[in-house]
Design a protein that fits this description.
binds phenylalanine; 18 helices; mainly alpha; 455 residues
Length: 455
């Protein structure tokens, strides 16, 4: 078969594609957000719902975005425009692309601030701050960082500059090559941390917390949070995966590649949880500490273990890399959109997009100190006590992503022909039928139920 003679080139291009997708999906969502959300939502039941969402909604949805992108071959808005025109469907579906760009912009504004926290912890590791930490001072250390708008601003700015730098320079290829070794390194380091967690004496407790569902602890809002996080962690509902799909050659097997990305993303998140919760319980820390959870637990571990200085440094460097590759993919849609619709060059568009994101990031920076008590929607019970950062997180993960996700699966499931879809997905008839049931029924009905019940 001629396929054989080409198989190497195909394999390497598929590798590059999968790597880019993993680079976007594995990031702060896995290591920072997943553990703290699990802790806030009471553990195992949240994890179970999250896993169900990942495999029943996230996986079919990832495949849908890729196949749309491959069919349209353009940026998300133009892709949806072309496909709807060809299939004679309403232009309103283009809103999927618009909502996606908005979502990516809002997310990056706070993502960069958290990426900045990780940068700050690199510096702390370098000056060996972790070695004298105890249960109290690890919290104080984090609290002091948050209390200083100037420090947060500096780190946020640095993270944004790093992101803009890569997107401007078009050196994403270099970063991707680096990611090829750094991602596995991150996984290895997480496994080592899990190994350390096993020595704390609370490993069984931590594992049970993650994997024994106690449904009395989960709320409807927790279920919506799990669903939204499935989208967040897989970079779905923002047109990003659609854009990646547009570079996809016809011979890449979408189903298999999607499964690889989803499994890797899930494994990294679960490893992070397995590393963190034993440390939480062994030291009597608060599992529901919120967004500071990893920053208030892992440094304790680094302070206690032999060579912890080095491990701490490595960990935060790798975390920054993972966040960086995700941040680049978050900036890209806005840059492309500006470049297409304005006379600005690529460089100009990137700088404008970056500056606009940086500026909105100030809202998050101030949410942790000066505006800590400012709850703009506090007059509504549902949003009581939510800072601007909380609202940005809420609006993106619990509104925008699930809604654009819903629109995408509805479009693919109900407004595209079976034969066209079949020709895009090179999989067994059984797997295809299963995917179609997920896209037509399970995912949309699931999203609608979760959505309505939490409102
Ligand atoms: N998936 C990334 C993470 O888990 C974040 C992200 C969201 C990146 C949306 C791109 C788009 O950290």
């Amino acid at each position: 078969m001629s396929y054989k003679s080409h198989s190497h080139a195909q394999w390497s291009s598929r590798m590059a594609f999968v790597l880019a997708a993993v680079g976007s999906s594995v990031g702060l969502g896995n290591i920072w957000k997943f553990p703290y959300m699990t802790g806030e939502s009471g553990g195992g039941a949240f994890v179970l719902v999250y896993l169900i969402c990942i495999f029943l909604v996230g996986l079919p949805m990832l495949m849908s975005e890729w196949l749309l992108g491959r069919l349209g071959q353009k940026n998300p808005i133009s892709t949806m425009g072309d496909i709807t025109r060809r299939l004679k469907r309403s232009r309103a579906w283009v809103l999927i692309g618009v909502a996606g760009i908005l979502g990516a912009y809002l997310i990056l504004s706070f993502y960069s601030v958290i990426g900045g926290w990780a940068l700050a912890y690199i510096q702390m590791a370098v000056v060996d701050t972790f070695s004298e930490l105890n249960n109290d001072s690890v919290g104080t250390l984090f609290g002091n960082l948050l209390a200083s708008p100037v420090e947060l601003l500096l780190w946020h700015s640095l993270f944004m500059i790093m992101t803009i730098g890569v997107v401007v320079g078009g050196v994403a290829g270099g970063l991707e090559r680096a990611a090829k070794t750094l991602m596995p390194a991150l996984a290895v380091l997480l496994v080592l941390l899990v190994g350390y967690a096993a020595t704390t004496g609370a490993f069984a407790e931590g594992a049970a917390y993650l994997f024994t569902p106690d449904f009395s602890k989960i709320t409807r809002d927790g279920i919506l949070a799990a669903l939204g996080h499935a989208f967040f962690t897989l970079s779905l509902g923002m047109g990003i995966m659609m854009a990646y799909g547009s570079y996809l050659s016809d011979d890449v097997n979408i189903g298999r590649s999607a499964l690889i990305v989803v499994v890797m993303d899930t494994v990294i998140a679960l490893l992070a949880g397995l590393a963190i919760f034993p440390i939480v319980f062994a030291n009597g820390l608060d599992a529901a500490a919120g967004p500071g959870l990893i920053f208030q637990t892992l440094p304790l571990a680094f302070g206690n273990m032999a060579g912890g200085w080095l491990f701490g440094l490595l960990f935060f460097v790798l975390l920054v890399f993972a966040a960086w590759t995700s941040a680049i993919s978050l900036l890209e849609p806005l840059v492309e959109w500006i470049e297409e619709r304005s006379p600005l060059s690529r460089v100009g568009s990137t700088i404008v997009a970056g500056l606009a994101t940086w500026a909105l990031g100030l809202a998050t920076v101030l949410s942790f100190n000066v505006w800590g008590d400012f709850a703009p929607l506090g007059m509504f019970d549902k949003f009581a006590g939510m800072t601007l950062f909380d609202l940005l997180d809420y609006v993106t993960s619990k509104l925008l992503l699930p809604l654009t996700g819903l629109a995408t699966v509805l479009f693919v499931g109900w407004f595209m022909g079976r034969d066209e879809l079949r020709s895009q997905l090179n999989m067994s008839d059984g797997a295809f039928a299963l995917w179609r049931v997920a896209v037509r029924f399970i995912a949309p009905i699931g999203v609608v139920i979760v959505f309505i019940s939490s409102l």
